[in-house]
Amino acid sequence: MPDWHRVAEEADLKPETPLGVRVGDTQIALVRLEDGIYAVSDVCTHEYALLSEGFCEDGRLECPLHQACFDIRTGKALTEPAEVDLATYPVKVEDGAVFVRV
Ligand code: FES
Predict the structure, then answer these.
(1) Ligand 1 atom closest to 82 (CA)
(2) What is the pLDDT along the chain (102 residues), one digit of tens a residue?
(3) Which of these, 6, 7, 28, 92, is most buried using a 10 Å CB contact count?
(4) Ligand 1 pocket, 66 CB below 6 A?
(5) What is the pTM of this model?
(6) Which domains are present in the chain?
(7) For residue 49, which atom of ligand 1 is closest to its CA?
(8) Does residue 44's CB lie within 6 angstroms of at least one atom of ligand 1?
């Protein structure tokens, strides 16, 4: 059963600056966009690279290894070499704390 996990403080999330967090073995990249905070898998679907170490602009997250781009809101793989979409996770903020449902 998915459950809510406290993973960060809202104040730690700067606009379009990914933050890597973990829930057990699940690695998640949190990103604050102008319309909210989003959570996607932190691990690229092409090979092994952490997207939280990549570049974020205009709602897209770019892998630092081969520069595939993903839509942060939907997880959709937008450019090659990635062909598989990222997992996405529901996010909620309560009293300044960020929770992800995993
Ligand atoms: S590992 Fe991310 S594009 Fe290759």
Answers:
(1) 3
(2) 889 999 999 999 999 899 999 999 999 999 999 999 999 999 999 999 999 999 999 999 999 999 999 999 999 999 999 999 999 999 999 999 999 999
(3) 28
(4) yes
(5) 0.95
(6) 4-101 (2.102.10.10)
(7) 1
(8) yes
